[in-house]
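A protein record in our archive is deliberately plain, so that people and models can read it alike. The record that follows is passed on verbatim for readers who wish to inspect the format.
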Amino acid sequence: MRDNLNAAEDNTDLKKLENSFDLLFDSVTPVSLVNHNLTLLVPSDFYKEYIEDNYLSLLSAALKKYIGKGVKLWYSVMENKPAGKEKPITIQLKGKSISAPKVQETLPPSFSQNLINPFVVPGIKKINIDSNLKADFSFDNYVEGESNKFAATVARSIAKRPGATAFNPLFLHGGYGVGKTHLGHAIGLEVKNSLPDKVVLYLSSEKFIQQFVSAAKAHKQTEFANFYQMVDVLIIDDIQFLSGKAATQDSFFHIFDYLHQNGKQIILTSDKAPVDILDIQERIVSRFKWGLSAEIKSPDFDTRRKIIVDKLSRDGIILTDDMLDFLASEVKTNVRELIGVINSVIAYSTIYKSELSLELLKETINKIAANQKKIINIPYIQDVVCEYFGIQREQLLSKTRKREIALPRQLAMYFAKELTNATFTKIGEEMGGKDHSTVMYACETIKDVSKIDKELKKYVKDLSERIKQ
């Protein structure tokens, strides 16, 4: 008997719910479906607020099912105005026929002042955002050569039609100081110059992570996401540092999808190719591959020579061919170091009021090399390894056996033994109190496996260059 009474009560509640739904939506009229923007005409603010509080999830699911992803819902409040309905017509949505009012191509002018979007935080509009772009990092100041020609050509194409090419996202990867950041800024500057209404934003992944953590602590993840949804061209530097940060990756994933689906341009830089970034979600790695991945290599001799000529000519300095050849042959690692040497040469010449000569160049570079000579010790090796893999020192020295931490730890042990005079016991102490046998095993493993594993071989090569440079 009790079961029958409960069933009857449930049916009564369900009937009331259905009646309430019908009564509410009998007064709501869809008036426009334009470019995935659906506008509902509601009699008052009460209707809008009631729908938001009680039916927003249901409406979102229905729109996604019948129209597709990325549909935005808008309200137009028509207080003190007749709520006459349009004559219903039948439209096809994803193969299903449903009744709907006549669809207007544009909204009536009287609607615009009261439009409210429940999917964004009230008060957030397109505002002037500091793009964080460096004026010096323009295409005019970017020297092209064999090492970067492909990436530069693609970048110029994107700058002309951001979000409208097949190169979205553009994933630039290569070693430190080879010009990835410069190229990202150049795209942003060109877009701002030719399309000033576009919202362009450059930031480092570290800044992105800090912002997300602050938003999460303040329970403002929605505001955080909505801010980035306003951006037309998003440039994030050193995206590999998202490694291991699951919550930030989740937020980035949804921001990425929103921007990509809405034709916004995404530009990412990394010191590793997408497949080489450890501890990052597969769904994110797959999206890195949607557009174009372009590697920028260390500049060859001719490109280094061009960079020197370009830099010095802007400072009004002219060198002889033998001086240019000497400079280009001495600094081989990356553009950043090359610029540093050039600036040092200019400074020495200015301070000592000396005419630039081949002898002065040699003397200057010898002094720079002496002053910049690195002391390779265990803490230094740990810093280089942590920076390369985008992890913290505390993680490296911890007891976790997760691959994304254990592998960098073994590599740090290996290089500590190869490049210092420390004993296995000393290395173990410096690596968080590990036993000497653990260090021995790590060194043997890296040495043996790197001979047959291409990925590990690349890690050993990259780290060796960075530690010694």
About this structure: Residues 20-116 form a domain with the GMP Synthetase; Chain A, domain 3 fold (CATH 3.30.300).
